[in-house]
Design brief:
By secondary structure, the chain is an alpha/beta fold.
């Protein structure tokens, strides 16, 4: 959809919520729920070995994606390059990326990939990584980031349609990757896909905590599940 939104993105003068969370970028609204366009989930890295999946882009990711796209358009960059740059700059940006990398390194995923740290997945080794959200476009409830719980995705026809239309396709393209779900809402979707035999349980790092700093149970959950998560990674990379 980037072609449809490139001109209004190019004309933006600032990147606050009142500039972006507006009608011209709105894809859908229902009651207090709004879904907006964002340009960073339109590229699929078909060579990826690691597939990290969030719920939906939050405001931080969304604003970074818009800024990146705006600058790329002003510089006359190719649209494909712009969308790639949007994904690189915005995915799990901020403290969430730092927490994510720390947990993956503690699980020794970096060693399985022959990396000093999983930080490289977001830099020069990003050809090993694909990231997306099960709902590729940002969802806001009362102008706040949607957390996946109210409404529940599978209980909302519109949200579940987004999942099936976009995420199912990406999962099919990367059917041999290691899936790392961030949060319970994503796990519920992966479990549903496992039941539908679209994914194998052995390729899904179920029980991995959401890396958000707002997740107060993150460290406790990680320590409780650490051994099992390491075993899953060992089995995945040994082909068991």
């Amino acid at each position: 959809m980037f072609d449809n939104y490139c001109e209004p993105i190019k004309k933006l003068k600032s990147f606050h919520k009142e500039d972006i969370l507006v009608e011209k970028f709105e894809l859908y609204h229902q009651g207090n729920m709004r879904i907006y366009y964002a340009p960073h989930n339109e590229i699929i890295n078909k060579q990826a070995k690691i597939f990290i999946v969030g719920i939906t882009p939050g405001w931080t990711q969304t604003s970074i994606a818009y800024k990146t796209a705006h600058n790329g358009l002003l510089d006359g960059m190719d649209f494909h390059q712009i969308k790639m740059q949007c994904k690189k700059n915005s995915r799990f940006a901020g403290s969430m990326r730092k927490n994510l990398i720390e947990m993956l390194d503690e699980l020794q995923l970096n060693k399985k990939l022959h990396l000093e740290s999983c930080d490289a997945l977001f830099k020069d080794k990003d050809y090993l990584l694909h990231t997306t959200s099960i709902i590729p476009y940002p969802v806001f409830i009362n102008n706040k980031n949607y957390t996946g719980s109210s409404p529940k995705i599978m209980e909302n026809e519109v949200l579940y349609d987004y999942v099936k239309r976009y995420f199912y396709e990406e999962a099919n393209v990367l059917s041999d990757a290691l899936f790392i779900p961030l949060g319970k809402a994503v796990e519920e979707i992966l479990n549903q896909m496992i039941e539908e035999k679209l994914l194998r349980k052995e390729q899904c790092l179920l029980g991995f905590p959401h890396p958000s700093g707002a997740n107060g149970h993150r460290k406790k959950q990680f320590q409780a599940n650490k051994e099992e998560l390491m075993n899953l990674i060992d089995c995945f990379f040994s082909g068991v």
